[in-house]
Amino acid sequence: MSGLRGAVRRLSVQLITNEGHFKSAVAKPSLTVVYFTAEWCGPCKRIAPVFAELARENPAVAFVKVDVDEHPDIAGDAGVMAMPTFQFMKSNVVLQTIVGADDKKLAECVRDYA
């Protein structure tokens, strides 16, 4: 059983499945980093491993991923106009938004807001 628990802990990026799941994730007082992406987005594919590594390195931070094609209402309500977009949130408040695949800025914001 301990092997299973270890495997579960390594699933560090949560895929948002519905609006309720999203609202619950961003309502937390601790940092949540939201990654808005699309399957067809080239820069998203490039930055995805960086996002996953940051999630593994920062277990106290929630990292969630929203596929904008599957959840256009969530993306629209968040004001997402381009992919990738990253929003850093605490208690439903957007602290910072990054548009584009800037891995250095992404790591810097995780460090600054965690």
TrEMBL record:
Domain Thioredoxin span(s) in chain numbering: 4-114
One Pfam family matching this protein: Thioredoxin
Domain of life, source organism: Eukaryota
Entry protein name: Thioredoxin domain-containing protein
Disulfide bond keyword on record: yes
Gene3D superfamilies named among the record's database cross-references: Glutaredoxin
PROSITE patterns in UniProt: THIOREDOXIN_1 (PS00194), THIOREDOXIN_2 (PS51352)
UniProt entry keywords in alphabetical sequence: Disulfide bond
Cited CDD domains: TRX_family (cd02947)
